[in-house]
Structure formats: C-alpha cells, structure tokens
# Entry
Amino acid sequence: AAGMLFLVYFAPGFSTPLYYYQIDTLNFSQHVIGDLAFISGGVGLFGAALYAGVCRKLSLRQMMYFIILVNAVLTLSYLFYTSHTRAMFIEAQSGFVGTLAELAMMDMAVRATPKGCEGMGFSLMMSVRNTGIGVSDILGSRLIEHYHFTFFNLVWLNAGTTALVLIAVPFLP
# Structure
C-alpha cells in the first residue's frame, strides 16, 4: 500500500509549473489564482460527499481502478487550460476528481495499517505520500527548467504515468 501511494503521487507533477503558467502565460492575478483554488476546493466537497456513498457500493480495488483511470484521462483536460473560463471548469473537475482520488488513497492507507499501531502506521503512509508529492513537483519543475519540457508536455507525461499505476492495482492485498 505504501508503494502504491508513492507511485500514485510520484507522477511528474505540475502544480508549480501550473502556477507559473498561470502567471507568465495566462497573466492571471493572484486573486484569480485564489478564486480558482476556491472553486477546486468547493467542488471537491461534492466529491467527498459522492465518495461517502460510492465507497459502500464498490470495493476499494474497483474504486482504485476507476479513480486512477478517470484521473489520468481528466488530467488531459489541462491541455485546454488556455483561458479564465476554461481554467474554472478544469479546476472544478480537478477538485472533484482529486478529492475522490485522495479519499480512495486515504481509504487504502487506513485499511493497510496494522491493528495496534494505527497512528504510527498511518503516519508512515502519509510520509510516503508527502515524499511522493514533494519529489513529483520537483521532478515536474526540473523537466521544464532543465530539459525544456513545455507545460503541455508535462501534462501528457503526468497523465501517462498516472495511467501506468493501473498495472500495480491487481497486486494490492
């Protein structure tokens, strides 16, 4: 489960490159970027409510397949991130699907934690998650800065590496 968490969060990230793309290319103000984050978080609440109902009907393995696939496909919507209006819709769907994915990962981490050491086990899982997120963002930023990837190349790479994680799902206990 810890390996799965790392793989899911390790896909070359584009949160820092997205920020600079918003500032440098789209000329968004800090206020607009804050509004987009608010939209993403607000719609994420609907994702959380949906997960509460769906997780009772589907197995965790089914949820993992579905969420990882949907996340990989919808990551490609960032290829159309070219205006304020499109950014609002893309950030909304990203918040919704991102919350579903995050909850599925947390569900897996909780279930994989051995009885009797839940606090330590879950904190180790979250450390793996946080390491994956940190390395992911550094990797994505480095690909743009040192290897001259474009933001859109990074979107393709992120979606592809996210989809590759589907190979690991059958190996989960």
